[in-house]
Structure formats: C-alpha cells, structure tokens
Amino acid sequence: MAPQGKFSYSNFTDELRQRLSIVDVVGRRVPLTKKGQNYWGCCPFHNEKTPSFCVNEEKGICKCFGCGESGDIISFTMKVNNIDFKEAIEELANMAGMKMPEYKPRDPRVVQREESLFDICEKAAQTYAEKLFTDEGAHALSYIRKRGFTDDMIKKYRIGYAPKNNIIANKYADSKHLIDSGLCRRGDFGMYDFFRDKLMFPLFNAKGNIVAFSGRSLDGSEPKYMNTSDTDIFHKRKTVFGLNFARDAIHRANRSIVVEGQIDAIKMQCNGFGETVAPLGTALTEDHIALLCKSNRNITFCFDGDGAGQKAAARACSIVMPFVRDTSDIKFAFVMGGKDPDEILTNGGVDAMRKIIDDAVGLTDFLWQVVNNNFVVSTPGGRAQAEKFLKTELDKIQDPELKSEFEKEYDKRKFNSWHKWKKNTGPVINIKLPDIDSITKNTLVYIVNTYPELAEKYIDFLGSLGVDFDAVSPTMNMDFTAAEKFLVSLKIQRYLEKLNAQKRELTKRGLAGDENVRDEIEQIDADIIKYNEKLKLLFSI
Question: Which pTM was predicted?
Fold first, then answer.
C-alpha cells in the first residue's frame, strides 16, 4: 500500500520490478554467469578482472563486493547510464513494453479506497474462517477434512466458508467500498454476497495481505472455482496462488512447481513440495510466468494427463518461451489415469508424487512432442505446417544464441525423424558398391550432427548409404565449406564407382555376344570422363 504523499510512479515502479528481471536488466550491460543461486560478473562501476558484482534475481538486487555499489533495476539503470530517475523509468518502461504514467500526486481518495479494500478483505476472511466451524459450515468442514486437510492447514491458509445467506452484505453494509471489493454486488433488492455456499480460499499479495478470494463449489456445480473480479488491489492475471507461502521453498528447491488448482497446491506444499503454486483456474498468463521467473527460472508444470491437461501444458509451453534463458530448466510432468496431485498424494504417497515430478519431460522434448502430436508430419503439407509452428515458438526466445541451439537441435530431429532413411532402388543394373570405411562413416556422422542444413540438402544421397546417423558423433575440426566439399566429392566418387561397375557388367554381356550394349558403354564412358573432370575441379578449389 503506497503512502499518501507518493507520486503515481510508486505503483508504476512496483509494476516494473514485477515485470522485469534484474538479471535481464543488468545482463544487457554486464556479462553474467550463474554460480549457485546468484549471478556474477565484473562490476561496471570500477575496473576489475575477477567478478565481484553479484545479482540476486529472487530479491531483485545487485551488489558489488569490491566497490560497494548496490541497488535494484532502477538505481542500476540510473548509475550505469548516468541518468536521472525519470529517464531510468522511461528506459525500463520501454524495455517492459509499458506506457509511462502521468506525473501527478496520488489521489488521497484512491489511497483511502485501497486501505478500505484491504480492511474489508481482512474482515471477510475472519468471518469466513469463523463460519467454517459452525453448524452452517459443517458440510464444508467435512469436505475439506475428507480431502486430507488438518486444522493446522486450515488455519495456516485461512480457509473458510461463505454461507448461503448474505452475511458480508449484512455485516458490512456501512462500508463505502463494499461493492468495489468484489465481495458483494447490487441487485434489484439491494446488495447480495457474490460468494454463497462456497469453500473460501483467501488470495494474498506479495506482502501477505488478503486482496481477494477464490470460492470452490461444494455441490458439484460449475464453474468449480469462482474468483473475485479484478479490483484496485487485485488482478487475477498477476496473482499466483500460494506464492507468498512458497517463496522461501522455491529458493531452496531451485525451482517452482505449477499445478492446476488451489487444493492441489496446498496439498503439495504440505507434503514436501513447498515450492508449488497454482494459477487462479487454468488461465495461465505471461504475468504469472514473469512473477515466477523473478523467484526462479526453473519451472516444472504438473498437469493432469487428460486432453485438457495436455492442452494446458501446450499453452504453458508457448507462454514460457519468451522467458527461457540458457540457465532455465523448464519441465512438464503429467498425472495420468484421471487423477490429480491431491489424489496421488492421498493414495500413492509422497514417493509416487516425487516420481512423477522426477520423470518430468524437458522443454526441448515436450515441444517436439507437441509438434508431432498436432501435425501430420508424414506428409509434405503437415511438415510445412509443423515447420511454421516450430519457427513461431522458437522466435519467442530472446537469446539469439540459445535460439540458434534450439534450431540446430530440431533440425537434427527433423532430419532423422521426418525423413525416413530409404535405400534407393538404383539403376536398372543392380550393382553392390563397396562398404563405406570407418573413417568416411565417422566423418559423415559428424557432418550430419554438426551441420543439419547439409543433411537436409543431401538427404537423398545420405539416405542411400545405409549409415547409422544416430551413432555417437566424433570430435572433428571441419568447417561448413569443407564439410560440403567432402559430401559432394563422396557423391561423385560413389557415382563413378557405380558407372564403372555398370561398364564391367555391360562389357561382360558384350563379350558374350550382346551387340546391343555398345551404345550404353559409349554413354557410360562419356559420363565417366565428365564426372572425373568435375572431381578434379572440386579438388582444385
């Protein structure tokens, strides 16, 4: 909550700090290397050879242990560019794609309304918590206990019950901003509670203040969860359930786990996976990912294994791509058999859940699965669509070198998986050529795995050789030009071997009295001269 005398920049700077990672801001000016939980580089404010400039992404601060300079994204931008506060804000706003706010004092009435909203939410949480342990809330209490919640868990997460009557509207009718809180609405007969007969989960901001609620239906009606509408102090797209409880655990575990629902998140946190959070519903957003990446860029998404869960995972994969760095570890885990993490923990225990998390698929493999599951890659049209989709996703990666590595990896996979290796039927006379020696074979494996673009270009020729290109690639020193020259020369040599073999077969037929082979032999002789000249020219370049 901003003090009354602050300018409107206060909320805006908080938004900047939320959207921008200090690692990204500092990394634009200082090459950084991750060591442990922090990033290190040479200080931009004094000359040094040994890196002593430390950047902590979770806390959003940087500090030099050599000269003592320290700060956040704003003070760093001011110091490194020698600009004032307003100019630094403008530069960071451009980086975040945000529009600058007007420079004016905060309206005291806005500040007062925010304070009133915090107060209403806190009082409502107390009322809901009390109602859970009354006769009215007995069925809600029974439900949550059957889900494995202890009284200590209920107390920690401040779970409550919203009764069927309009308890909030009646109890706090004198509050000026009750409608603004989203807890009540106005109908033809006056105000009424938005949440009725719901199991209530308070939603907290980063400071631990209750800003909204999520209500779960108890009678099986849809939607399963209802959330407070956006207010001055709550924005669904920017709120991650359980993050206030999970921050320390995310730091210790060096990752966050994202599940689909509030109950799953709480059960995971209370069973050894304290780093678990959930979006409000399945609508994962870029803002959710940005918030998590501020704590840690290692994220494991854990969704149901059904069709809806697979779609949610594919959407998460697409959303997370702009946030991927070379230090990121993004994974996707699936709970199969129509179950969720809560049910796995209840019936299979912590070990079963841990195995699911440990068996999570990495981002590279999961995106490859998405492509192959959604496009018919056995057809040229399907492969073209898959190529376009894959390019669109990879274009989201901000680090050019990382993007290039992803492209190389997928080029290899496309070459080996989408284009089946097929033996050519050969000419009319079937001649068995000599086997490829081990040196040539190793060279070919190196070229295919190092220069996938050459593999695509010469796919028909390479496919005729019968070489296992999935073999371990040797270490060689061969640039792109030399690699292509090797392929072209080998192709010509193999063709010359084939021509000479054909000539020998035709000559045998001629000696046996077949006069019809004379013209064919003359044509082969001309081709042999032609391709020998090409080979000489290639070696002379």
Answer: 0.64
